[in-house]
Q: What sequence folds into this?
């Protein structure tokens, strides 16, 4: 596995978040092990990993919900251990499912959390926040009557009400329909590009992350796998090419006798995945035609999902290449 | 001459010249009969081992022949049952066999002791013993045994109203059943101090100190309802 | 701190189930008052059965608002701790269960302050319950039954308190009861820190209170001098001490006096120590706790 070491850039502003050697051990289980990463201002920082990889644990440590076993966390240039309140005044977060007080209205929930963050919210401020997340019409409805998507949006509103500089969103699109997912995506982009907020987002929806994240961190089993700019992480020499055929059995037999056998990565039904240099796609195409493979489509896949699958332990669960 | 006078004085004081218990009782009764009614104010102090009550301002009403009521207009008073049934007037009513029981001391004075045995076998009073100040015709103490309510003792001291044979102070003593409630009902606060509950039957007393009497001015019957 | 307390109280009193204990108390009190109104004499006759042979008992005067209030408190101050546990046991664990605890902890408020505010809120709730009890048990009883001297039936003594001498004792008793119930609240509060569901702390608190109350009431020499004096349940009934008067040398009650004020103050001190201990333990535990809910 390669990791991209970014050279220090004097023009780069100082990091908003700097985590060094972060470790968390629960009883005899290591949830996070020696994790280090850096988040820069106004960036959308993607935080990826499978279930149980340690994402939520890491984010909870950033928010002082969990105490690290070892390591250092600096936010806004301050040590989190000794400047907790000062830091949290400038941080807003939604951790997992945003559970709010069901017996209170959206307005009351928002007002309550605003006051806890030290604000004296006026009507205008609360209304603006609710409008931002599209809940102004339901301001005085009890949260118990809300759908999961509405609760998610209200959760984000409570995270933003005190105008934090750093926003941490853990699985913000959970339980949302495609429109809801798109809304959250646009909101995150708005926060970063227009309001210059730094956003750390963890998500399973890798396709969504690909669309919004500037930098990202992939972790697995509590350890960093890779960190860097999204557009710099893909290695053209490791492109996954998807081949769809009309006669998969025949294609499998012909490919097994060809020089492309070593590139075969996976087969699903009538589709084959080959890992190869992107520049060799024309040669592949030529050879398939020569071999008489009945090709329906050839598609290079360099999505984040595929990249993620190749990097993490998920790729050890691939099907064996057999008929 | 003076020796003759001395002789008569000595003889006059000798027992052979003392009045009979019947006669004495009649004279005492005659004194008491001068009182038709009275309304008296006083303070009542209760001294019973299992009762802890504050001093009370009471009004005592009496109307001949035998009605007596002790009332606390400002609160609650637990009045011993015997106290109202054995007023002195009650004791001296009815038919008795009167016995001379000699002399004794009561209230620091030598008194004549007279026992009264009711002739009525069904009367509640079984025996009364009166300790009478003969010269002043005042009953200083009375001990009465009743069929229903045990034995009582009444002690009287006289002062301001001695002319009316009305006492300044009455102490009424009696026997009571012991009092005890299960802890599972009372849930008392246990402050850790040693508690010594009275053993066996208890003896109590009630003292009334009278401050004033309104005598023979009429007392309505409604008071005794 | 004041803003946070207002927020906590807002959350507590906007929740519908907060009012269940108020309803339960009202129901219990009205049931007792109705029972005594219609058949209070039987109750008094039972209490004073050993006196009625020797004394005239003015039952209608004795059955007055002050006595009725005492009977109610005698009954309720055994059950009310359980109602207090319902709210105090839920105050942290309920938030964890709802998933809102993590939203609170990530605010710029120290965990110590957060917990102290929550504890004070549960004390305010306890006071509200007691004020409600006071209004219904004392003032409503005074209206329904009138007032007169108050007779207290103790284990071996019957005490009488003049009517002018009663009210301040009730104020003192309710004040003491606040501390006693706050001790139960503090215990439930402590247990609430360790749970993610309020059922556990509530049931545990109730169980502990019941077991310790039994220990406090039992007469077993092994416990009497060792464990009993230090159990908080042994001191929860000390509010009654305000209704026990001193007597003069001749058995009369001294108005305005308290039989054993030092003992009551000692009991109060022990309860305050327990509260301090429970709350401190709760804060220390919570500061180290990983919030996984």
A:
């Amino acid at each position: 596995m390669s990791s991209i070491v970014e050279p220090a850039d004097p023009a780069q502003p100082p990091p908003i978040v700097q985590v060094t050697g972060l470790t968390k051990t629960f009883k005899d289980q290591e949830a996070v092990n020696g994790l280090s990463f850096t988040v820069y201002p106004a960036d959308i920082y993607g935080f990826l990993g499978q279930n149980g990889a340690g994402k939520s644990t890491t984010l909870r440590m950033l928010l002082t919900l969990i105490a690290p076993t070892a390591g250092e966390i600096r936010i806004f240039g301050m040590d989190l251990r000794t400047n907790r309140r000062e830091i949290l005044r400038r941080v807003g977060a939604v951790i997992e499912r945003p559970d709010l007080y069901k017996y209170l209205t959206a307005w009351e929930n928002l007002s309550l959390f605003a006051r806890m963050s030290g604000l004296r919210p006026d009507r205008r401020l609360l209304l603006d926040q609710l409008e931002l997340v599209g809940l102004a019409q339901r301001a005085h409805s009890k949260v118990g009557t809300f759908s999961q998507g509405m609760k998610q949006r209200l959760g984000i509103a409570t995270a933003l009400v005190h105008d934090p500089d750093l926003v941490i969103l853990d699985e913000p699109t959970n339980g949302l329909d495609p429109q809801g997912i798109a809304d959250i995506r646009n909101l995150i982009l708005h926060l970063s590009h227009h309001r210059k907020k730094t956003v750390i987002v963890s998500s399973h929806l890798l396709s969504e992350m690909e669309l919004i994240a500037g930098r990202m961190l992939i972790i697995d089993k509590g350890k960093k796998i890779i960190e860097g700019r999204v557009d710099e992480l893909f290695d053209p020499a490791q492109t996954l090419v998807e081949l769809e055929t009309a006669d998969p059995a025949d294609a499998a037999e012909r490919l097994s006798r060809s020089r492309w056998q070593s590139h075969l990565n996976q087969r699903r039904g009538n589709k084959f995945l080959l890992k190869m240099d992107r520049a060799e796609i024309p040669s592949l195409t030529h050879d398939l035609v020569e071999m008489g493979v009945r090709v329906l489509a050839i598609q290079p896949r360099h999505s984040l999902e595929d990249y993620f699958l190749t990097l993490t332990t998920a790729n050890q669960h691939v099907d064996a290449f057999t008929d | 001459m003076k020796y003759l006078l001395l002789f008569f004085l000595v003889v006059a004081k000798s027992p052979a010249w003392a009045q009979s218990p019947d006669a004495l009782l009649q004279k005492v009764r005659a004194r008491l009969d001068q009182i038709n009614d009275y309304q008296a104010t006083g303070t009542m102090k209760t001294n019973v081992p299992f009762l802890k009550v504050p001093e009370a301002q009471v009004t005592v009403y009496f109307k001949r022949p035998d009605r007596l009521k002790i009332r606390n207009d400002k609160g609650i008073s637990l009045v011993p049952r015997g106290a109202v049934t054995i007023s002195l007037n009650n004791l001296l009513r009815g038919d008795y066999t009167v016995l001379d029981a000699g002399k004794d001391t009561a209230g620091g004075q030598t008194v004549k002791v007279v026992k009264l045995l009711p002739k009525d076998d069904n009367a509640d009073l079984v025996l009364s013993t009166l300790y009478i100040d003969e010269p002043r015709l005042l009953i200083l103490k009375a001990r009465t045994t009743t069929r229903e309510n045990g034995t009582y003792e009444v002690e009287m001291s006289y002062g301001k109203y001695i002319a009316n044979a009305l006492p300044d102070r009455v102490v009424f003593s009696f026997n009571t059943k012991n009092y005890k409630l299960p802890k599972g009902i009372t849930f008392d606060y246990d402050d850790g101090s040693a508690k010594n509950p009275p053993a066996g039957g208890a003896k109590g007393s009630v003292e009334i100190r009278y401050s004033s009497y309104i005598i023979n001015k009429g007392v309505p019957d409604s008071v005794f309802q | 701190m004041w803003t946070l307390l207002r927020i906590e109280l807002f959350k507590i009193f906007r929740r519908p189930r907060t009012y269940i204990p108020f309803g339960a108390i009202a129901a219990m009190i009205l049931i007792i008052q109705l029972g005594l109104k219609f058949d209070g004499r039987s109750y008094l006759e039972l209490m004073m059965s050993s006196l009625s042979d020797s004394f005239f008992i003015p039952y209608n005067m004795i059955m007055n608002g002050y006595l009725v209030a005492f009977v109610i408190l005698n009954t309720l101050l055994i059950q009310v701790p359980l109602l207090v546990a319902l709210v105090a046991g839920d105050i942290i664990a309920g938030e964890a269960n709802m998933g809102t605890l993590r939203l609170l902890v990530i605010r710029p408020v120290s965990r110590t302050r957060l917990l102290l505010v929550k504890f004070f809120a549960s004390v305010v709730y306890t006071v509200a319950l007691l004020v409600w009890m006071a209004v219904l048990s004392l003032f409503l009883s005074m209206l329904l039954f009138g007032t007169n001297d108050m007779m207290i039936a103790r284990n071996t003594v019957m005490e009488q308190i003049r009517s002018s001498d009663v009210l301040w004792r009730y104020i003192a008793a309710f004040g003491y009861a606040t501390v006693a119930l706050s001790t139960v609240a503090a215990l439930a509060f402590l247990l609430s820190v360790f749970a993610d569901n309020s059922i556990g702390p509530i049931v545990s608190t109730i169980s502990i209170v019941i077991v310790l109350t039994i220990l406090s009431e039992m007469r077993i020499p092994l416990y009497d001098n060792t464990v009993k004096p230090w159990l908080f349940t042994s001191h929860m009934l000390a509010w009654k001490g305000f209704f026990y008067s001193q007597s003069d040398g001749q058995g009369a009650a001294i108005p305005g006096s308290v039989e054993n004020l030092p003992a009551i103050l000692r009991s109060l001190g022990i309860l305050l120590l327990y509260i301090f201990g429970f709350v401190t333990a709760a804060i220390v535990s919570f500061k180290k706790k990983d919030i996984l809910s």
